[in-house]
Design a protein that fits this description.
The protein is mainly α. Helix content is 73%, strand content 5%. The protein starts with a strand and ends with a helix.
Length: 110
């Protein structure tokens, strides 16, 4: 069954072309790379904060999250305890996660 992928969602059968499956692999690579970038940026920002140096703007951190780095940002928040309490930051962060989740839900359902 070339081009058929069985989805775990309600045991439905979803048909995807090989090109679309390649796109998923590429998206996952982007997620991994951007997550590494986000983790490094959070580490750098935390270090700068502790040393009283100039910080990485929050909008920059959010841009990396939006570009696919949100899993690395989430991990950094848990491991480094950085940006994990600031309410306004967390609201934007979880909105970005929701956008990604909605995008994947749309992609799998089309």
């Amino acid at each position: 069954m070339d081009g058929v992928k069985r989805s775990g969602f309600a045991s439905s059968t979803v048909r995807h072309s090989p090109l679309q499956l390649r796109t998923v692999r590429e998206a996952l690579i982007v997620y991994a790379l951007m997550s590494a970038v986000a983790l490094a940026m959070y580490w750098s920002d935390k270090r700068r904060a502790l040393r009283g140096r100039r910080r990485i703007p929050e909008v920059t951190l959010h841009a990396v999250e939006l570009a696919g780095g949100w899993p690395g940002a989430w991990l950094a928040q848990r491991v480094l305890h950085h940006k994990s309490i600031k309410r306004g930051y967390q609201i934007v962060f979880w909105m970005i996660v929701a956008v990604h989740a909605a995008g994947w839900a749309w992609w799998w359902r089309r």
